[in-house]
Amino acid sequence: MSDNNITLELVERKQLRKGLNKFRKEGQVPAVIHNPGKDSIIVSGDYLEIVKVYKKAGKHHPIEVKLGDQTYLTIIKDVDFETRKHTIRHIVFGAIKQDEKVETEVPVVIVGDAPAQKAGLLLIKQIDHVKIEALPRDLPDEVTVSAESLVEIGDKITVADIIVPNGVTILTSSEHPIASIEETPAQESAEAEEEATAEATEAGEASDETPATD
User: What is the pTM of this model?
Assistant: First the structure.
């Protein structure tokens, strides 16, 4: 996990359903803090500050939320985006404890060059994130997997190939593919043309060899 502490100041919110559109137009984002065993806290925050924090923390970095004279250690659980503009409409924080493990998602980063790509083949990525479990202090900003074994068509790397940081358990199935090697559309098209030409040639040769009948 990054050593940088991420903090965010929120305020209690009285607006529930009515007036939320006006509320958003004023630069505020409705939010909620889910606190296990206690009532959820209805809050809001400045849009620009929330966007900045979300870009830094994602769903994998603890955030210290300051609410009046209270401070909550949280992690972002869910973000609702406006469809067309892709702006944040609502955000859910989950209160966590330093001594309790957290389940969340982290990005998967493929490191190194795949030999197959140097040969002009195509690397197809199947997943961008994996689900993990760890104590808040052990949550990584990302997990990595090497591309060096991707040499030819059909080669793939799976969750089992991820370099797992200390204190982290990966919950996504170890057999789930992360990336694989395929031909490019141009290569597939060229092969299809070659096959069609070969078939036509064979058909023509077979026709020439057919004995004439009286």
Answer: 0.75
